[in-house]
Amino acid sequence: MEISNKSQPTVEDTVLVDFRSSVTDTDLNRFIADTLQPTEEFNREMQKTVGQICDFLREHMKPNKIVKGGSLGKGTAIRGKSDIDLVLILNEVRNAEDLEEKLPAIKEEIVKKLRRNSTQLSIVHESISGDQSRFSVKFSAEGSHDNIDVDLLPTFHFEDLKRLYSTMKTDKDHDAYYSAALVEQQVEFVKSYPANVKSLIRLVKHWRKKMVVPYEAKRKLPNSYVMELITIHLWEKHVGNDGTFNTLKAFHSVMEELKNWKSLKIIWTKNYPRCEVPDDIRTKSGPLLMDPANPMNNLGSTFVWDEIEDAAKKVLGSRMMSGVS
């Protein structure tokens, strides 16, 4: 059931969504389009920056492939959130063990080359760092309004996904070194869903940013990828035959799912069958939210959910959700 809003905004007005006040489905869709959807100017600037950096990396690092990851690659970016994840797939790195050994030297090489060419690439020279993360090189590129944060993640090349999964089952010493290698599968999974699902994802990610407050510093809360996956799961569960849905009702369903996170039992079989998920993960008590790209990664047990649950309860108890089911 859609909610009526006594003070309907005119076409010229900007719709504001505070996740507490009454709002119609129409206004919610307008808010997403007018406030969260990236503008053409934003997309052009990001494409230009990505293009410059990728051209530089192809010339100086000779990668097998560069994968555009993160929300930009998946098509779920929010207007004004300027960051880029680029995965550098290198032929000279054979596997996860080899990556662990070679990664420090690879990062050092990238940092040196970026510093020598920072002016050409419009990079903020002092922002270039290989020390902030064990797995990536970070820097900021100059944007027209704000700086654009860039993460470069070197990784290894593999040919056979099924064989990689088999190796991962026995190679417990290098779990963390497989993550970047599987970014392409994560991107393709989310990217394959329709535009209206990505619009709903933007709304959920905006809610998380505005309404979810950590109880204390350094608590590891569910990230954007988790929000994307739960939104996709709810869309698959409730979408009509024509692929359309009521955004307000769909958002209500996402909030219900987040409130009841302890009951999550979600496995996708696009990249691997259910039997590829180890028994100790699949049968363990607690939430199960499997990474569709990684049968060893239960995202449900990776994070703390209390803040998410509390924020979802507040929305569900607000005037925004009055009469919605």
UniProtKB/TrEMBL annotation:
Tree of life domain: Eukaryota
GO MF, one example: 2'-5'-oligoadenylate synthetase activity
InterPro entries named in the record: 2-5-oligoAdlate_synth_1_dom2/C, NT_2-5OAS_ClassI-CCAase, NT_sf, Polymerase_NTP_transf_dom
Domain (Polymerase nucleotidyl transferase): residue spans on this chain: 53-109
Domain (2'-5'-oligoadenylate synthetase): residue spans on this chain: 165-320
UniProt-listed PROSITE patterns: 25A_SYNTH_3 (PS50152)
GO cellular component: cytosol; membrane; nucleoplasm
Spans traversing the lipid bilayer: none
Family: Belongs to the 2-5A synthase family.
Name recorded for this polypeptide: 2 -5 -oligoadenylate synthase 3-like
